[in-house]
């Protein structure tokens, strides 16, 4: 059963249909290496992450509020909170897992609902709150994981912008080193979802281009003086 549940695929398709220009950096169904190392509904294809992108209307507050009303759903994690079908009477509870889920809304479904491809409610959602309530995670946050009910931990503090001098060398796909890691860490703190491994690979390239578009810069994936300045202003 380790393949994406059709119901989870439908959740992504409906989000794409409702908000065709939305960002998808944190979308996902199947678990990555970090998920595979522990128990996670993603490993069975029974969970879906939908990227929080309020600028397009795809707001985690809207997605989560609609998801908890769907009978296919077993639990939802969003913005330091968790809602579980088994504990519905308690409503939203504080979530203290290692990943506070501020970049995406995590939705787990029941095994019996895997093939239920009814449209999800957000396909006809009327909009999102004008002001997003999400608190950006700190640079140390893991981009994957923490999507199972926690036993301990606490929310982490907000990141603080910092001025970092330009290294006088353009960074692009294939570059490695501490300056790449600084860029990755800063992007992660600003809401993009990527590992800070010091390797400028395809994921970093994609996220740099997304950042450049957001800032009205040439989206060439090269971190030169202007992109660096926009990142660390």
UniProtKB/TrEMBL annotation:
Positions of the Peptidoglycan binding-like domain: 176-231
Coiled-coil residues: none
Domain of life: Bacteria
InterPro entries: ARB_07466-like_C (IPR058593), Peptidoglycan-bd-like (IPR002477), PGBD-like_sf (IPR036365), PGBDSf (IPR036366)
Residue numbers spanned by region Disordered: 129-180
Matches recorded under Pfam families: PG_binding_1 (PF01471), VldE (PF26571)
ARB-07466-like C-terminal domain: residues covered: 30-104
Protein name stated in the entry: Uncharacterized protein
